[in-house]
Design a protein that fits this description.
330 residues, alpha/beta, Rossmann fold, UDP-galactose 4-epimerase, domain 1, 2 domains, 7-stranded parallel β-sheet, 15% strand, binds NADP nicotinamide-adenine-dinucleotide phosphate, binds ligand G4F
Length: 330
């Protein structure tokens, strides 16, 4: 009988980790999630599959814990998705962001080098590395100009991945993913903040939605589509890096307009601009060129911008209405 392949996902409790775990389970993998110790469980996004994955404790800050986990599991693939991923927090906690998001990658790669160089390694890189890009759309040749400590840390993670590939012949790839969202997106990110806000306003719980820069433009896709690209990158005969994006860009204002109009409201009646939500340095426009991913990986996003917004607003309408349902006495 064919042996089941084992994969480790760091950041399994996050948005992408939860979709990737579902995807790998469907492909027949034994899925191990690396989780850090916390005083309460953080399994909200994986509660529906928690009995089908195995959770192991380790921390990106702790080298030995990572080595021990990899030694014990002996995976064929590792997906390094864990990081401090919120850009504003990286301005408040730049050193910690560097520890998790930059040096954490070296700790993972060192562990691979030590335990088994045949393990295939995926690094979750980001379009934030392009930042103040000199041209649009951005591709692998576009020079980096990060605009936050997060973007700077991700560039370190990107280059250390390439360095371990070149130095030690490890099958290590860096996936430069543009923004991808879903109903499981953290509530502090702008798309989910908008879908939650729209749901609460529609259901009469809140009266306004405070936002920062509405002019910023992003290339937004659906997280469920993007985890497939991660897996495809590790199935190729040669390791290389990829840009994963939809190739379309929309402003935060477009997202807001469409989300409100989906529930028949006019956004202008509810949105308040709060200068405190502007960033010290902004990334104004991101739009990726996914040509290579389409050509080599045969990857294509399935969910478009309109459908993504509808999916997120519908999910939040459901969640918010569940919380306000009167409890029926037994
Ligand atoms: P997310 O929802 O914020 O999840 C981050 C994950 O990292 C969580 O599971 C978190 O665990 C874990 N983590 C943080 N610090 C850790 C530590 N010290 N040790 C172990 N685990 C730790 O992020 P996401 O949206 O799924 O993104 C996944 C990855 O892709 C991230 O690296 C992100 O920077 C990158 N990325 C995301 C996008 C996007 O648009 N979503 C685009 C490009 C790149 P807890 O549950 O314990 O907090
Ligand atoms: O949703 P955001 O916080 O995402 P951002 O900064 O683009 O970063 C996300 O995508 C990256 C990929 O490019 C990932 F690497 C990263 O981990 C993360 O997942 O903000 C999007 C835009 C920004 O320009 C921000 O200034 O929305 C603007 N915005 C306007 N009002 C706001 C708000 N962002 C947030 N979070 N909250 C607001 O109220």
């Amino acid at each position: 009988m064919k042996k089941q392949k084992a994969a480790i996902i760091t950041g399994i409790t996050g948005q992408d980790g939860s979709y990737l775990a579902e995807y790998l389970l469907k492909k027949g993998y034994r899925v191990y999630g690396m989780v850090r110790r916390s005083s309460t469980e953080t399994f909200e996004r994986i509660h529906h599959i928690v009995d089908r994955v195995e959770l192991v404790q380790a921390d990106l800050l702790d080298q030995l814990s990572i080595i021990n986990v990899i030694k014990k599991i002996r995976p064929v693939e590792i997906y390094n998705l864990a990081s401090q991923s919120f850009v504003p927090t990286s301005f408040e906690q730049p050193v910690l962001t560097g520890e998790f998001t930059a040096l954490g990658v070296t700790r993972m790669l060192e562990a691979v080098k030590l335990v088994d160089r045949k393990i295939r390694f995926y690094q979750a890189s980001s379009s934030e590395m392009f930042g103040h890009a000199p041209y649009t759309p951005q591709c692998l040749k576009t020079p980096f100009h990060p605009r936050s400590p997060y973007g700077v840390a991700k560039i370190y993670g990107h280059w250390i991945t390439i360095n371990y590939r070149e130095s030690y012949k490890i099958f290590a790839v860096s996936g430069i993913l543009f923004n991808h969202e879903s109903p499981r997106r953290g509530k502090e990110f702008v798309t989910r903040k908008i879908s939650c806000g729209v749901a609460k306003i529609k259901l009469g719980i809140e009266k306004e939605l405070r936002l920062g820069n509405l002019e910023a433009k992003r290339d937004w896709g659906f997280a469920g589509d993007y985890v497939e690209a991660m897996w495809l990158m590790l199935q190729q005969s040669q390791p290389r890096d990829y840009v994963v994006a939809t190739g379309e860009t929309h402003s935060v204002r477009d997202f807001v307009k469409k989300a409100f109009s989906y529930v028949n409201l006019n956004w202008k009646d509810y949105v308040v601009i709060d200068p405190a939500l502007y960033r010290p340095a902004e990334v104004h426009v991101l739009k990726g060129d996914p040509t290579e991913a389409q050509k080599r990986l045969k990857w294509k996003p399935k969910v478009d911008f309109e459908r993504l917004i509808e999916m997120m607003v519908d999910a939040d309408l459901q969640k918010v209405s569940d919380t306000i349902k009167p409890t029926i006495p037994a």
